[in-house]
Each structure stands twice: as structure tokens, then as C-alpha cells.
Amino acid sequence: MIKKILSIVSLTLIVTFNSNAQTVQDIFNTNIPVTWFGIDYSHVKIVGTINQFGGKTPVTATELHDTYYTEWNHLILDEPEKYDIAKMINRRGAIKDIGMITALNAASSMDSVEVAATPYYSQEQIQKFVSAYPIENKKGIGLVFIAECMNKSYGGAYYHVVFFKIDTKEILLQERVQGMVMGVGIRNYWAGSYLSVIDYIKDDRYPKWKKRYGASSNATEPKW
Length: 224
Prior knowledge:
This protein is an alpha/beta fold. About 40% of the residues lie in helices and about 20% in strands. It has one domain (about 35-210).
């Protein structure tokens, strides 16, 4: 009887594990909607000092928090052909809803935003951030860039590219990606860092993810 119970438990664990492991395939199933929630700056760190962050155009913590977090997110909505989230993940379209992330960014604290060295958020930390997202009445797959740090000294930033199940907040795929800056002016200069991430995912990472994890049988390929 005990052996029978153990066998049932073992089978359940295997089925559960396999089921969870397979959900990453849904990222490549174009029949399952993907919602772009935006760039989460609520955990970002500035390596160095904020007064040097803008270079020749000094910026304050208040300006960074109240102005640029919002502008960087809205730029993706305002210039969709340049910052093409759907094309990045090889889809004809993606739902865009940055309201939740905008609220989180607005509520974030700037008290400890300056750091001496680049942080490195663990998978557990990223899952904790995602699990706290106040998302209701949505299904499908969520996509977010979680900004980890911005470093003026080397002209780059790190973002965690995260796909997750919206209903459970379970992360399906996560990768830490470095983006290099480009452009003129504070807004465009740092927007260049996530533009380079978007292009890198489209041209390199997404094809490799798809090859590694495999597309589901219901997936269809967009024709650009």
C-alpha cells in the first residue's frame, strides 16, 4: 500500500514538473496573447551619482523619477515602428498595457537608488518582483523589461527580459541583457539602451530561444 502511494506521488510530481517545464513553449504560440506591460524602473539602480547621470545636462532624482521613467515607457507607445515589441517576438501584434508598471514606477522610492557597483538580481528576486505585480482579470503571457541598473560611466544598462504567466505570475523565461546607449539628449540616449535590447532579442535571442525550447504545435509564423 505504501509503495502504491509513493508511486502515485512520484507520478504526480513528474507530471507536474513536465507540465510546468512545457509552458515555456506557449511563448512561441501566436494563438496565445502576449501583453507588454512596460519597463519596470521600480528596482533600478544608478551606478554612480545621479548628478552625473545626465552628463552635460544634470538631472535630479525627482526629474528621473517623475519625468523620465514615464517618458521612456511612453516612447515605445509613441514610436511603435522603431520600438517594435511585436516584431521583437515575431508576432503580428502585442497587447500594450503600461498602466500597472506606470503606477509602480510612480510609487517607487529614490532613497537608495545610487549604488557603487552594478547589482545582479537573482532569479528568485526577479520572481519576487513579478509575483507582486497587481494584475487582475487578464490571461495569457505577460512581457516586461525589469531595469536593473543604468551606468553612465560605460554607457550601458542591464534589463531582465521576463515572460510570465499572467494568471499565476510564474516566470516562463527570463534573461538578463545588456543594452548600450545611443542617441542625443537624456531621453533618447537611455532609450537607446532598451532599443538595442529589443533589436538583440529580435535578431539573436528569440530565434535561439525558439530553437532551444521549441514552438508548440499550434504556433503560426507571421509573414512580415
